[in-house]
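Name: protein-lysine 6-oxidase
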Amino acid sequence: MTAVVKCDLGPRYSGVSPTTHRKLSAITTQPQFVRLKGGANTGEGRVEIYYNRQWGTVCGQSWDVKQASVVCRELGYGSARSAPKGAQFGQGHGPVWLDHVVCTGNELSIVDCAHSNFSATSCTHDNDASVQCNVPDLKVKEKIRLSGGRNPREGRVEIQRGRKWGMVCSNSWTYKEAGVACRQLGMGYALHALKEVWYFEGDKLDFVMADLECDGTEEALHFCRYKSWTNKECRSHQVAGIICTQARLPDLVPDASQVRTSIYLEDRPLYLLYCAAEENCLASSAYQMEWPYGSRRLLRFTQAVANFGKADFRPNIDSSQWIWHQCHAHYHSMEIFTQYDLLSENGTKVAEGHKASFCLEDSHCYDGYEPKYDCNVGEQGISMGCDDTYKHSLDCQWIDITGVPSGTYTLEVIINPLRSVAEMDFENNRISCKINYNGYQVVANECHLGEDELLNSIY
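Structure predicted for protein-lysine 6-oxidase:
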């Protein structure tokens, strides 16, 4: 008497087949309170729980495949094939919500398992729990290929529609789309999202996919939004390409609390702003003034950026190409390291600033990690397990808000805004704060990472 079973696709994959181009449904139609972060492939990553309006992690103590399988099934995958501990997909931030998790294996959610009270733990993020889930084979890897690259992990992106192959226009091509393509190929993270691939040889194909936009969670480019399939060439002949990597990457995370607690106003005389003006750290109206008379109103704050990834964060160009700035006596190793924007209530940008990587270095390191980079000695970077802090008193650590009327605004701080250096996760690179400005005083409230906005707006 042989037992026989037949399995159907779960709700996450309902209606999806190798020949249909439907977007995965479950995770996009309703908020999820458990998610995976930092993984290169579908169904893997650090486990995070949303509780008390904040994302936190799960301690790896007592973590095994039984607990991991509950998470995998909750997210719509199969059982777990492994349950990595020790922050194998990078360290999380915020609280460690769950500790001493023990499951029977029948629970519908990881929060239904026995565990210590939320946040009642001495566990640290260097022991964050992760999962690698069994995932249905949708044959999506057969629908994409690379051509013209120097090795199998790079080239022009080509996708299949029916029995024909086409290219992807790069007018809306970003790291999100490139990450989906690398995931679909099973080639890890996106190292570069290429918008021009004329140096990659390839045949002229039958069609192009135009105006492609992904949210970054899709398992294939076919599940992303796109405007049309056409037999015309891409505008300006810009065709998408990628370079993928299986190597470990950094993951920068800014500290929202530092911005909230340090923010203040300063009316700074122009005669103290010559160096800042040289480095374009002032609003355009400043350059129309009669120097050195007058002053500028500056919104100042401290910025701390931690590297919770699995590799050091290094500038995207070699040190021989860094630009020396005599006024501040330092090298700029990146064109823009941070972008600051002040937005009105309707989202209009009313003021902006930027900060080149004056001096990427290890200002502070967490337990178990040692500082490696000191820009006064030579090399610049942020080591794994360390952070780089720019104090509010430093030049260009501000937004020039001269002439901005009083009101309620949103301050956005975006790290690595051009995405010129690859990271494990770009969704945690933005801070958003509500700013109340009455003309002579400023207060920041509700500062949080930008990735938390959707759930906070619903709940």
